Structures are given as structure tokens and as C-alpha cells.
């Protein structure tokens, strides 16, 4: 049975998607886990990271091949008329990424759906169609308090908070904790395990990093991952095929220290999250 882990922060610009995708890749390639990444953000950042331009163009024209397909009420109505169950699995929903892990893509049309009436839909779909096929399911959540966030957290067993070492990222953490306590547990009674905080895009010699790290040690001592991901321009360049043919950190053979970072971080995630 798969463990479902949400990657979430109420603050954007912390490298959440880059970390979620690279952790999915490392868990699969380095540790042999069967991994599914589900992009539940209508901005489609994980989807764009993983897929070619040609594949993206096709998905834009075929939204039912994305998470929109099984969240869309029109699909459910059509399925019922065709005497399918409403939870009939969609063809071609799961896309393999470079022979390493799988992804369920997102779509901009997800914004058209009223998710308030079906907060457990994603959880139900995961349990019915994915949980028995994978070891780990990673949810890339949007950086906002929204129905997408609620849907993701209700589908997750645990969550990780990627954080950049700045004051704004720190502000988002208690806001997220309050939301989980008051809504996810308080309103729905859903218990979700906080695995911890991963510091990302780290520049160790900066004063703000040292201040943030010290405050985290004081306030969240048991939840700070030992391993961190430093800021490296090569990670950004990896998103451009013309600048770097290797988009995943594990494959960046020239970056020995960076590869070690992601390998050790993914192992720590396995140990902390009992994946």
C-alpha cells in the first residue's frame, strides 16, 4: 500500500516543485521505489518540468488525460450514461517519465471545477486505482490555501514543507499548521503526519540563512531535515534543454556534491516518513 506525501508551503518561490520532482526521481532511480507524482496545481509546474513540449501540447488539447479527467463532473455523468461506474479508471491518465517514475499531469481547466462538493475525490481515486500499484505517491500542492490544498491534504498520509531560508517562508509555516489543525483535522477529522521541513535553495554563508536556521532549531527542532539542497544555477539550467541536457539532479554527473545531497535527502525522507 502506497504512502501518500504532500509537498506543500503557503509561500511560493521556495523550489517546492523542483524538490518534489527530484525527490520522486531519486526515490525511484536511487532507492528502487515505485513512485507516482500527482500534480494538483492548475499552474502545471510539475507537469511542465517532467514532460516534453510535444506532450504538453497534447495534454492541453486533451484535458481528460490529466487530473481534470477524474475530477470533472461531466466525465462522471458521461461514464454513468455509458453504464460505467463513476470511478471508472481513465485511459492514458498515467504518463511514464523517462522510464523512472510516473506522473498524473495537471491542467489549467482544473480551475473550472467546484472542488468544494467533493473534497475526498482525490483520496478515493488514489485508494481505488493507485495505492496498490506504488510504494510512494507524491502530491505537488499549490502554494495557497484553497480547495486544491484541502483536496491534497485530505488525500495525503503525511506532508513535507520545502522552505527557503527567508522570513516570508517562515511566515507560511504556522499559517499552514493552523489550517491543518482547524480545517483538515478540526473540520474533517483527518490525521496527517508532519514529516518535516526541508531547507531548499540554501546559500550557507548568508546571514539570513543562519538566522532562519537558528529560529527553526528553536521552534521546530524535531522537524528539520538534516540534509539540505543548496542553491545551484545548474538546477535552474536543467529546465532548459539547450543549457543542460540533464534536468534531474541525480543525473548531473558533474555535480558530485549536489547528487550526494539529493540522494541522502531522499534516504532521509524514506526514514522519517517510513516510506
Keywords:
single chain; 275 residues; alpha/beta; seven-stranded mixed sheet; globular
Describe this structure in words.
- The protein has 275 residues and is of the alpha/beta class.
- The chain has helices spanning 16-29, 45-50, 53-61, 67-71, 73-81, 121-130, 147-155, 167-185, 207-219, 233-237, 256-273; strands spanning 3-7, 35-39, 94-97, 101-104, 136-140, 158-164, 193-200.
- Helix 1 crosses helix 11 and helix 6 (121-130) packs parallel to helix 7 (147-155).
- The termini are close together.
- A seven-stranded mixed beta sheet has the order 3-4-2-5-1-6-7, with helices on both faces.
- Residues 77-88 have low confidence and may be disordered.
- Helices cover 43% and strands 14% of the residues.
- The protein has eleven helices and seven strands.
- Strand 3 and strand 4 form a beta hairpin.
Amino acid at each position: 500500500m502506497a504512502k501518500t506525501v504532500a509537498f506543500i508551503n503557503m509561500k511560493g518561490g521556495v523550489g517546492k516543485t523542483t524538490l518534489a520532482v527530484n525527490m520522486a526521481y531519486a526515490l525511484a532511480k536511487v532507492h528502487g521505489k515505485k513512485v507516482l507524482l500527482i500534480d494538483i496545481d492548475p499552474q502545471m509546474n510539475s507537469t511542465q518540468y517532467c514532460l516534453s513540449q510535444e506532450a504538453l501540447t497534447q495534454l492541453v488539447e486533451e484535458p481528460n488525460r490529466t487530473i481534470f479527467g477524474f475530477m470533472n463532473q461531466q466525465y462522471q455523468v458521461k461514464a454513468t450514461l455509458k453504464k460505467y461506474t463513476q470511478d471508472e479508471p481513465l485511459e492514458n491518465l498515467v504518463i511514464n517519465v523517462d522510464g523512472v517514475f510516473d506522473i498524473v499531469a495537471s491542467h489549467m481547466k482544473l480551475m473550472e471545477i467546484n472542488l468544494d462538493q467533493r473534497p475526498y475525490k482525490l483520496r478515493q481515486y488514489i485508494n481505488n486505482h493507485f495505492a496498490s500499484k506504488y510504494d510512494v505517491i507524491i502530491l505537488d500542492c499549490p502554494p495557497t490555501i484553497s480547495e486544491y490544498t484541502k483536496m491534497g491534504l485530505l488525500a495525503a498520509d503525511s506532508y513535507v514543507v520545502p522552505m527557503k531560508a527567508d522570513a516570508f517562508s517562515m511566515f507560511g509555516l504556522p499559517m499552514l499548521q493552523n489550517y491543518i489543525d482547524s480545517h483538515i483535522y478540526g473540520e474533517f477529522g483527518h490525521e496527517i503526519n508532519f514529516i518535516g521541513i526541508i531547507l531548499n535553495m540554501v546559500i550557507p554563508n548568508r546571514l539570513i540563512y543562519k538566522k532562519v536556521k537558528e529560529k527553526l532549531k528553536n521552534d521546530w527542532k524535531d522537524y528539520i531535515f538534516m540534509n539540505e539542497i543548496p542553491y545551484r544555477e545548474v538546477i535552474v539550467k536543467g529546465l532548459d534543454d539547450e543549457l543542460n541536457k540533464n534536468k534531474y539532479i541525480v543525473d548531473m554527473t558533474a555535480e558530485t556534491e549536489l547528487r550526494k545531497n539529493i540522494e541522502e535527502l531522499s534516504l532521509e525522507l524514506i526514514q522519517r516518513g517510513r516510506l
